[in-house]
Amino acid sequence: MSKRRAPKPAWHRYAWIAAAVVLVGGGGAVAAGAVGGGGKNAGADARDVAAGGASPSAGAAGSAAPGASATPSAKASASASGTATASATATPTASGTATATPKTGASGGGAAGDGGGDATGGAEPATVAGPAHPASAEVFTGLAFDTCTAPGASKMSAWKASSPYGAAAVYIGGRNRGCAQPNLTSSWVGTVGAAGWKLIPIYVGAQPPCQTSGSKERISAADAASLGASDGADAVARAKALGMRASSALYLDMEAFDDSDAACVGSVLTYVQAWDKALHARGYWAGFYGFTSSSAAVVAQAKPTTPDMPDVLWYAKYDGNDSTTTGFPFSSGLWTGHRRGHQYQVNSKESYGGASITVDRDAWDAPVAITG
Q1: How far apart, in whole angstroms, are the C-alpha atoms of residue 246 and residue 236?
Q2: Looking at per-residue confidence, does 227 or 36 come out higher?
């Protein structure tokens, strides 16, 4: 995910999604009004790449560099069935936020393309209880990008003015983090946050024992629980040092591995459980990044029957589809109610406002960091 791995294949297609910021409480969405809008690690698996993909519609401000797909333009909304909605439509240069107070009773399912569930709008299946996540979160709905090294403030300013993106993923720590972060300081977080960017914190923790990579830190059956707990505590400490407050979501990066290895799967799940519990104990949401064909699939299979599975799923599926609902690869009832991110295209060199960055593209409808 973090460009500490070899470059991932690029597939082309996306439509622009306008940004909306809402709050969620528990598993339900909330009512809100909105005005305006507006790189990962080793082991990408070919099974996560869908061949083909239509060309995007053009028309948004900014231009993609040579070899990148056309600039996107479109609109998007997020809604929960029956009791809560949050939506926004805008040109890429528009900006705005929505605020809300948590409301109970909203079902997780939503209309097709809404970010709350897939087209079937199924209710989330019962899961085994564990320590509770925080009561509320700040949710971003729209397009996000991730890149290995956090861009400088000037580039972020240029992109804020003319790109279709409203959120950026940043690598806050972990022994397996692959890129230097000279720009990623509390001052930088404050500056880009004040400019309107939403941030998605990624922690590159210990990797599976059966993974074929040069990871500096690996999980073992003997230390999975203790290592998950210490890495979770470290993730929170690093987030706090950057000014990312309690009730932020932090995302554990777990790269592709052999999910047919039962012992390896068991160690990974034990580590994830301990990492999640460490975050909950400190008042943070536990997110998870993984590949549809392996790491994300393992967590999705475990979630209905295993306690302390991630609150939010960020899945890598390179199908060119800028949606968290259409083509969702797992049970329609999982991670509904604004708890999904979708990395749908990688290694796209793009230029806005005279600033060029190579990014991975993400459709986002999930909690982000709380700053400021």
Answers
A1: 9
A2: 227
